Amino acid sequence: MEEHDQRFMKEAINEALRAQEKGEVPIGAVIVFKGEIIARGHNERETRQRSDAHAEMIAIEKACEYMGSWRLEDCTLYVTLEPCPMCAGALVQARVPRVVFGAVDPKAGCAGTLMNLLDDSRFNHRADVRAGILEEECGLLLTSFFQELRKKKKEKKRQKSDLF
């Protein structure tokens, strides 16, 4: 399974790079059914100006269209960053049985870091979670993105102060 997980996580990373090209936070996701990618998504919150335009949410919507059902019972979601509460909830609601992610999210991770909504026995569905697949590569995408963003903000601030 490790080999498949890495292969599909690389596809999620490609989606994250697409987000980054648009100036979005580089998070990407793919959904796999019977060994084939049936849906892709990347972060589009800035592009769409929608708080729910997360990579997972976009991929879930596309996968449901592909399957012709809201149930994604035989699918696996691969995502570069640990799902947030909204996305973890959507994965439970969509009945996704397996979730694989790259980097942990210490601020919003709900697949094991802050809590694990995907494995809470109070819900009528649970998902197996596999964490840390290509973790370093996934984490570096985010770290580099935010370092560059801070650098640009600092430069902008400096230019503004030079005017006065």
From TrEMBL:
Q: Which InterPro entries does the UniProt entry name for this protein?
A: APOBEC/CMP_deaminase_Zn-bd, CMP_dCMP_dom, Cytidine_deaminase-like, MafB19-deam, tRNA_aden_deaminase
Q: Which residues form the active site?
A: 56 (proton donor)
Cofactor(s) this protein cannot do without = Zn(2+)
Protein residues bound to Zn(2+): 54, 84, 87
Keywords assigned: Hydrolase, Metal-binding, tRNA processing, Zinc
Q: Tell me the cofactor note.
A: Binds 1 zinc ion per subunit.
Gene Ontology terms for molecular function: tRNA-specific adenosine-34 deaminase activity
Give the first-level EC class, as a single word: hydrolase
Query: What's the superkingdom here?
Result: Bacteria
CMP/dCMP-type deaminase domain segment(s): 3-128
* Catalysed reaction, written as an equation: adenosine(34) in tRNA + H2O + H(+) = inosine(34) in tRNA + NH4(+)
Q: Which PROSITE patterns match?
A: CYT_DCMP_DEAMINASES_1, CYT_DCMP_DEAMINASES_2
**Could you say which EC number(s) this protein's record lists?**
3.5.4.33
Under the subunit heading, UniProt states: Homodimer.
Similarity field? Belongs to the cytidine and deoxycytidylate deaminase family. ADAT2 subfamily.
Please explain the role this protein plays, according to its UniProt record.
Catalyzes the deamination of adenosine to inosine at the wobble position 34 of tRNA(Arg2).
Q: What is this protein called?
A: tRNA-specific adenosine deaminase
